[in-house]
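Need residues for this backbone.
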């Protein structure tokens, strides 16, 4: 499961995101904030950081488990 929560605070955007294994034992949790004008790049940098911190491996496991059930 993957989730992200975003809100604005004045001229800033605040993002909180999680990538979790199905059993919840593995998790990558991170956050980012910055100018609303840069919200897309802030989100992309957050995603890249999370994937590099173990999120990619968690998502790969999910993909493998899905393919095994077909």
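Answer:
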């Amino acid at each position: 499961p993957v989730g992200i929560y975003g809100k604005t605070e004045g001229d800033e955007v605040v993002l909180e995101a999680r990538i979790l294994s199905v059993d919840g034992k593995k998790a990558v949790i991170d956050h980012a904030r910055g100018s609303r004008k840069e919200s897309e790049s802030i989100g992309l940098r957050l995603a890249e950081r999370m994937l590099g911190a173990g999120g990619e491996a968690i998502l790969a496991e999910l993909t493998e488990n899905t393919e095994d059930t077909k």
